[in-house]
Amino acid sequence: MPAAAARDSRALYEPVIGLEVHCQLLTATKIFCACPNRFGDPPNTNVCPVCLGLPGALPVLSRHAVTLALRAALATHCTVQPTSVFARKNYFYPDLPKGYQISQYEQPLATGGHVEIADGASFRRVRLNRIHMEEDAGKLLHEGFAWSDSRSGVDFNRSGVPLIEIVSEPDLRSAEEAHEYLTALKAILLYAGVSDGTMEEGSLRCDANVSVRPRGTEALGTRVEIKNLNSFRNVARAIEHEAGRQGALLQSGREVAQETRLWNADKGETASMRGKEEAHDYRYFPEPDLPPLVVGPEWVEEVRASLPELPAQKRRRFAAEYALPDYDAGVLTAERAVADYFESVARGSGNAKAASNWVMTDVLRKRKDGDETVAVPAAHLAELIRLIDAGTISGRTAKDVFERMWETGEAPGALVAREGLGQVSDEAELRSAIQAVLDGSPEQVATYRKGKASTLGWFVGQVMRRTGGKANPQLVNELLKRTLEEQ
Ligand code: ADP
Ligand code: MG
Ligand code: ZN
């Protein structure tokens, strides 16, 4: 597609996106058996008759899996249904030994709800349609084994791992918004302890439904479902590409076909996988081996009471309590560890504005460059801010001290003392440095006396040089003026 045509179609057509996110629950065992729910073990070591789908084996629902699904539902403001029903979703595939997946269909665990995403300087709600529980399928192994040239294998360790599927309404309007939504949703799931949020290990998986419509119109266009999205970035790339493809089709008078397409990350494009005609008919029917799931109000309230402060709540509290702009509060609360770190620094230093500046710039940059952990304890950063506020070190020196703190793990007070980095605020010492500068620059002194007050800055610079940059600049300024006037 010519680039110019794609650009035009973007101006004419608005993308409409709804996401289906699968999230593995952080349980110790699988959803319907006692096998370990663990990633990375040798193939087919965590299996039993239930998750291998052997005849006669009966599923027993894990209470902890339901509790985690409830945590996700309440953390996203869903309504928990008092009764939900497991159903068989029938299809044939080698990774599905029973020939059906146990899922929820007509009566899901939770409905409604929303996730807040950044919208310019403020936030807006993306509505959820539902959250339902299901079991994961096994995994086909196509590469990495001695026999991979001639055969594929099946690993059933993942078969029966508990999942929730979080289905959004078609409320997203761009690839960036979809990325925002996934980031916000992941943060909620991590805060709530529902998931570990690693998309690489498959604990978060996403399908994107994309349509376009002429800008300014309401009716939804024909939707395409995109699969094989293995990172948030690829979700955004795929949506961007797919919306462009659909817009160009409509613009040239053709139609969008309702179909499932696969994202090819290497080529940066989607390709048809199956059309409407080949769409699966899953023949859903209620699972006869499991009773309806009944969740009473006590259980719901118990789970609700056990939830921590969630990102949106924390963001509002930070904005109010520490007088931070909404945007800053959003950045600081995106990750629980960062939010906790910021709060310790803010409390320990008594200077929330400085704490937020340091965390948002220096600390997050360091984390981005290097590992995920924060290498400077919150107490040390708080102490550094107190040293600046007390005038013991300059803001400039503080940046160097911060670097040294990051490398050595030392407390800033000790570092400053040992390396003699403290600001010189001792009047006698500064006076003698000033005198030395004035004595050595009679011409400049004469210029100053003629009324060229602008040369004061030059003197300050000379004194700073003499003191190796450690003189307290404000004090030098005052003392210089006084000395020049006295003499
Ligand atoms: P299915 O059961 O076939 O997957 P759903 O109605 O449950 O269909 O919708 C699945 C996802 O598709 C939801 O996230 C929904 O928001 C989204 N969706 C539905 N219609 C459209 C549309 N016209 N354009 C974009 N997304 C859509
Ligand atoms: Mg679907
Ligand atoms: Zn098992």
Quick take:
With 487 residues, this protein is an alpha+beta fold. It contains 16 helices and 17 strands.
Q: Uncertain segments of ≥5 residues (pLDDT<50)?
A: none
Q: How large a portion of the residues is in β-strands, by DSSP E?
A: 15-25%
Report helical residue fraction.
40-55%
Individual helix count: 16
Tell me what you see in this structure.
It is a single chain. The mean pLDDT is 92. The strands form four sheets. Strands 1, 2, 6, 7, 8, 11, 12, 13, 14 and 15 form a ten-stranded mixed sheet that branches. The chain has a three-stranded antiparallel sheet with strand order 5-4-16, with no helix packed on it. The chain is built from 16 helices and 17 strands. The protein is an alpha+beta fold. A hairpin with a 2-residue loop joins strand 7 (114-119) and strand 8 (122-135). It has helices at 3-12, 63-75, 175-191, 232-251, 297-306, 311-321, 326-333, 336-349, 352-369, 378-389, 395-408, 412-418, 427-439, 442-449, 456-466, 473-486, and strands spanning 13-24, 79-80, 83-84, 86-90, 100-104, 110-111, 114-119, 122-135, 139-141, 153-155, 162-168, 204-214, 224-229, 259-264, 269-275, 285-286, 293-294. Helix 1 (3-12) crosses helix 4 (232-251), helix 3 runs antiparallel to helix 4 (232-251) and helix 6 packs across helix 7 (326-333). It has three domains: 3-300, no CATH class; 309-419, no CATH class; 427-486, Arc Repressor Mutant, subunit A (Orthogonal Bundle). Helices cover 41% and strands 20% of the residues. It is elongated and about 100 Å long. Bound molecules: adenosine-5'-diphosphate, magnesium ion and zinc ion. Zinc ion (ZN) binds at residues 30, 33, 35, 47-48, 50-51, 160. Adenosine-5'-diphosphate binds at residues 16-20, 129, 167-170, 209-211, 220-221, 223.
